[in-house]
Amino acid sequence: MRKLISARPYVCPFEDIERHIPSNAKVLDVGCGNGALLAILLASGRISEAVGCDVHEGALASARKAAERAGNAGCVSFLKIGDFEALPADRFDVVTMVDVLHHVPEGERVKAVDEAIKRVGTGGIFLFKDMVESPFWRRLAHNIDDLIFSGEWVRQVKTAEVEAHVKAAGFVLVESQEIPRIFYGNTLRVFRRL
Predict the structure, then answer these.
(1) Given the DSSP bridges, would you call strands 171-181 and 184-193 parallel, antiparallel or unpaired?
(2) Strand, helix or coil at 157?
(3) Partner of 190 for a Cys bridge, out of 70, 71, 165, 175, CB 3.0 to 4.6 A?
(4) Is residue 9 scored above 90 in pLDDT?
(5) If you average pLDDT over residues 155-175, what whole number do you get?
(6) Does the pLDDT value for residue 129 go beyond 70?
């Protein structure tokens, strides 16, 4: 697991995500997995409080251990959820959804985004990152990666649809990026609630 976690920055552009997190932020990481993003944000001193949510208890156990080893267990908590409606009811400065939506069945994606953006406070940030739709070979690299490591063949998210939906909910797009990483391609969208 440690080797897998240590390889994650070669796939996921954490530095591009991190620069959008204001100092002393209260963060909700939807689909936090093993907590890699929150560990990076805690280590950089960016966040004062954080909640990571995921459906997999094994990943959450790994996240808790990592937070304890880093000495940050007091300001971060990890919550197992059965569905997106079970996300904490609080409002957060930043809500992140990194490499989550492609694991969600297509018919449930709008609900997942809606539940995530409900938790963004006034003036807060919704940060969405997923795999690119094209070029084909970068998309295929993600598909193979997910098949090997999560045992599922995932379907790409239509980023334009997510973008239009979030804007219609009262957010403005503040950054739109396509970020290559080795064989992979990442799409990053950062929104601010008006």
Answers:
(1) antiparallel
(2) coil
(3) 175
(4) no
(5) 96
(6) yes
Q: What is the pLDDT of residue 5?
A: 55
Residues 6+ apart with CB under 8 A from 65: none
DSSP string computed for 64-102: HHHHHHHT-GGGEEEEE-SSGGGS-SS-EEEEEEES-GG
Q: What is the mean pLDDT of residues 16-42?
A: 93
End-to-end Cα spacing for the chain: 40
Structure-block tokens of residue 4? 């897998």
Residue 20 neighbours by CB under 8 Å, 6+ apart: 94, 125, 127, 175, 190
Name residue 154's amino acid. V
Residue 3 has pLDDT above 60, yes or no: no
Query: Which 3 state secondary structure label does DSSP give 192?
Result: strand
Which helix (H) or strand (E) is 164 found in, with range?
helix 159-168
On whether the CB atoms of residues 139 and 133 are closer than 8 A, the answer is yes
Measured N-to-C along each axis, helices 109-118 and 159-168 cross at an angle, to the nearest 10 degrees, of: 40
Instruction: Classify burial at 155, counting beta carbons within 10 Å of its beta carbon; exposed 0-12, middle 13-18, buried 19 or more.
Output: middle
What Rg value do the Cα atoms of the chain yield, rounded? 15
At 177-186, the pLDDT tens digits run: 999 988 888 9
- The first and second tokens of residue 139, run together, are 């998309």
Q: Band of the pLDDT at 171, cuts 50, 70, 90?
A: very high
Q: Which residues pair with 30 in a beta bridge?
A: 53, 97
